[in-house]
């Protein structure tokens, strides 16, 4: 029994003696204890797939939107967008951003293949430029009411603005700010995902297409942006401690 008690006691005394060392050795010991006590970061592929699978599905839907193999969704909306080069360009740009965006959240690519990360980012930004500029035409020729048209147009504007801020911050070496702005930007890219399930939901609840589409002009992206801000605030202390 005495030997069983002496081991923890000895270890406790050893820790006390080490933490009581002179100033020259104190910092090293405390840092070692802190590193041992701090939980190691682990990747969460489940969270990445949770974000990515809906994005990839909507990208596939957008591709079908272009080639029109399977008529899925409101035919009036589909025909209106596909009837102009502006609408097709908006779809191609949004499709590109939706496909590439999730890969920018993979830390393994950022750390091991930074050149790949940068090139994906450039193509992603190009997709946003194409989709965002043409979003104004799509917004003001959509079937929703004027209030919804302005909401979608404003979405296109801040989609472009957040991408511009993301690019300018990385060019000036502000990595943390770059990540924050691109998180905001992808939350706006994700509006396409939210719209695709919200619109049929609202219609199934008895709404006509016009008011339902008008409502999604707000609900498809405002909650996303709020979530992105919450995520940024939550991540800031973690980045500061790294």
UniProtKB/TrEMBL annotation:
Q: Where is this region: Disordered?
A: 18-40
Per its record, how is this protein called by name? DUF2306 domain-containing protein
Q: Which UniProt keywords apply?
A: Membrane, Transmembrane, Transmembrane helix
User: Which domain of life does the protein's organism represent?
Assistant: Eukaryota
Q: Which organism is the protein's source?
A: Pestalotiopsis fici (strain W106-1 / CGMCC3.15140)
Specify one Pfam family. Answer: DUF2306
Q: Does the keyword Membrane apply?
A: yes
**Segments passing through the bilayer:** 48-67, 87-107, 119-138, 150-173, 185-206, 212-233
Lineage of this protein's species? Eukaryota, Fungi, Dikarya, Ascomycota, Pezizomycotina
């Amino acid at each position: 029994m005495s030997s069983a008690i002496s081991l923890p006691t000895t270890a406790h005394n050893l820790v006390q003696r080490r933490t009581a060392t002179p100033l020259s050795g104190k910092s090293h010991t405390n840092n070692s204890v802190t590193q041992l006590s701090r939980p190691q970061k682990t990747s969460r592929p489940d969270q990445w797939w949770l974000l990515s699978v809906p994005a990839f599905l909507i990208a596939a839907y957008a591709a079908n939107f272009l080639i029109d193999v399977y008529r899925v969704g409101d035919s009036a909306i589909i025909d209106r967008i596909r009837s102009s080069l502006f609408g097709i360009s908006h779809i191609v740009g949004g499709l590109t951003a939706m496909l590439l965006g999730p890969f920018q959240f993979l830390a393994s690519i950022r750390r091991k293949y930074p050149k790949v990360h940068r090139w994906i980012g450039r193509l992603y930004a190009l997709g946003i430029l194409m989709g965002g500029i043409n979003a104004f035409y799509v917004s003001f020729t959509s079937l929703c009411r004027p209030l919804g048209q302005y909401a979608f147009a404003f979405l296109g504007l801040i989609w472009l603005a957040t991408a511009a801020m993301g690019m300018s911050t990385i060019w000036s070496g502000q990595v943390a700010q770059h990540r924050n702005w691109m998180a905001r930007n992808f939350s706006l890219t994700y509006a396409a995902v939210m719209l695709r399930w919200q619109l049929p939901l609202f219609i199934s609840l008895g709404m006509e297409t016009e008011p339902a589409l008008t409502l999604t002009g707000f609900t498809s992206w405002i909650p996303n942006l709020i979530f992105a801000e919450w995520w940024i605030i939550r991540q800031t202390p973690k980045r500061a401690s790294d």
